Amino acid sequence: MDSEIYLDNNSFIHRLDPRVKIIIFLLTFVAILLFENPLWMLPIMVLILIQLFVSGAVKNLRRIRYILIVLTVSSLILWNLFSTGETQLFWRISLESMLFAIARTMLMVLMISTGMILISSTRNEELINGMIKLGMPYRVGFAISTALRLVPTIASSTVTISQAQRSRGLDLESGSIFERIKKFLPLLVPVFISTIRSTNIFGMALESKGFGAREDRTFYLEFTMGTADYIVLTLSILFVLASIYFAISGYGRIDGLIRF
Amino acid sequence: MKEIITMWKNTRMIILVALSAAIYAAFLIVFKGGIPIVPGITEVRPANVFPPVFGLLFGPAGAWGAAIGNFIGDLFGGTLGIGSIFGFFGNFFLGFIPYKMWGATFGLVKKDDMSQTTDNVSKIIAFELVALVSSAACAIIIAWYLDIAAIVPFAFLSITITVNNFAAAFILGPILLVLLYPRVKRWGLIWTDIMNKEDVGKAYGKTLGSILMIIGSLGGLIVGILVAVGAAGQELYGFAGQQGQAAVWLSVLPFLLMILIASLMLSGREQFVEVMEEEEI
């Protein structure tokens, strides 16, 4: 499953230091959240689109298109209902609420795209290592990376158990909500038991190799920041600072918008 | 709350974090669509039974597991975003509140049998209570932030998350716990069997803490919704129109603080009673 999300390309974004990619990921969230007018969100949208195409992450985005369509439609409807404005268009929809709904939809889709760029261009171990280098305790990093490695195994055994139970007559698609939820029990118990029973052996194996013996640990995977990393990081920080300046100066608002 | 930090000293607790996160994430991914209640709006995610069960069995490791598992679910599902950050905290509390409140459920869980299972009616009621409170707490944490960020309205999201979380836990939780507890106990993996009592924070007025936790979670949910829809709250707090967002923000904030204070007042130490008795014998 890991290999399905991570794209083994050699793009400029793939080659960036994972720490830089994590910081850009967080900075992008700040920049996206600053404006409520969709026009003011266009610069960050263009930057994200460039990253999507350069990294090839647009391919992964296509895979979740149904989620994106549902989010887009529901967001457009909901934010129109939860806001209003002075320039009435039709029914409960005003020009201001429409602009606001478009901006909120852009925000959601852009955030998902930003996350997709990060995970499509960064391997799990690079991501965790980057987080540890940025200050996350290595024990936490170990738990996350172990979980990341185990998810595909557990997901595939869940599918196998599900198929085995279906072949024995388990029908997850019929019955009332109450009955359908209860039908998940024959799947939950075996997955839980088969996973958790290995805890003690796993623990002994780790401790026999000195896990937790020291406060710090070393890594095979080491990163060094290159010129490109520093340039990208500086430009990103400048972009966000400029966005903050414009937002504080009152740009990017929708005049006449009333939010409930 | 000391134990959420001290547990990281223990290798088996770290492994339980990883395993519970992996199980939760795997179920979130495999059954991502869930069982629709209102198609496209609300669904029951069977995986949501895991956080309260993990919390009760594995204590702080279950809480961290729920938080990390939800984050990984977002990562693999391609829905990693700003919501994932507060999804992390919300799901942490979904696993955290059950084990903190278990020994402070107004006598439903007796002092002489604090075992984290649902083998009698009063423990089933206790489980449903802690599952409901944690579901609401998770909902208001996530919905509060996403409303401030103007991503999803509070009135919509808080109800959706509470229903999603609680429905699976309500139906599957008690059965799952009664089936899993004996095995987990036999393997010595119940959190009170792994951790030292001294590594768990002390209680400061358990009953009051429990009441605060209930008011903080369920009260926050109700007040937040009322203010968000403007039924009473907007007049009550004197906000309207443009300041609508601030009304939700300000009205839910005290309840979130209540949850935090209650978390400091509640302990979980009382669940070590079985071990103490065995040691005395």
Give the topology, please.
The complex is a heterodimer of chains A (260) and B (281).
Chain A: H1 2-5, H2 12-15, H3 18-33, H4 42-55, H5 58-63, H6 65-81, E1 83-84, E2 88-90, E3 93-94, H7 95-121, H8 124-133, H9 138-167, H10 177-182, H11 185-196, H12 199-208, H13 227-248, E4 258-259
Antiparallel strand pairs in A: 1-4, 2-3
Helix pairs in contact in A: 3-7, 3-13, 4-7, 6-7, 8-9, 9-11
Chain B: H1 3-6, H2 11-30, E1 35-38, E2 42-44, H3 50-58, H4 60-77, H5 82-101, H6 121-148, H7 154-186, H8 191-194, H9 206-229, H10 233-237, H11 244-265, H12 273-280
Antiparallel strand pairs in B: 1-2
Helix pairs in contact in B: 2-3, 2-4, 3-4, 3-5, 3-7, 4-5, 5-6, 6-7, 6-9, 6-11, 7-9, 9-11
Query: Which stretches of chain A are low in confidence, meaning pLDDT under 50 for 5 or more residues running?
Result: none
The residue-averaged pLDDT of chain B reads 82
Query: SSE order of chain B in H/E notation?
Result: HHEEHHHHHHHHHH
Shape annotation of chain A: flat
Count of helical stretches of chain A: 13
Terminal CA distance of chain A reads 42 Å
Question: What is the arithmetic mean of pLDDT of chain A?
Answer: 85
Largest interface: A-B, 73 and 69 residues
Describe this structure in words.
The complex is a heterodimer of chains A (260) and B (281). Helix content of chain A is 68%, strand content 3%. Chain A is mainly α and 260 residues long. Chain A has two domains: 2-126 and 225-259, no CATH class; 130-208, no CATH class. In chain A, helix 4 (42-55) packs parallel to helix 7 (95-121) and helix 6 (65-81) packs antiparallel against helix 7. The two termini of chain A are 42 Å apart. The mean pLDDT of chain A is 85. Chain B has 281 residues and is mainly alpha-helical. Chain B has one domain (3-280). Chain B has helices spanning 3-6, 11-30, 50-58, 60-77, 82-101, 121-148, 154-186, 191-194, 206-229, 233-237, 244-265, 273-280, and strands at residues 35-38, 42-44. A two-stranded antiparallel ribbon of chain B has the order 1-2. In chain B, a hairpin with a 3-residue loop joins strand 1 and strand 2 (42-44). In chain B, helix 3 (50-58) crosses helix 7 and helix 9 packs antiparallel against helix 11. Chain B is globular. Chain B starts with a helix and ends with a helix. Mean pLDDT of chain B is 82; it is low at 231-244. Chains A and B meet through helix 3, helix 5, helix 6, helix 7 and helix 9 of A and helix 2, helix 4, helix 5 and helix 7 of B.
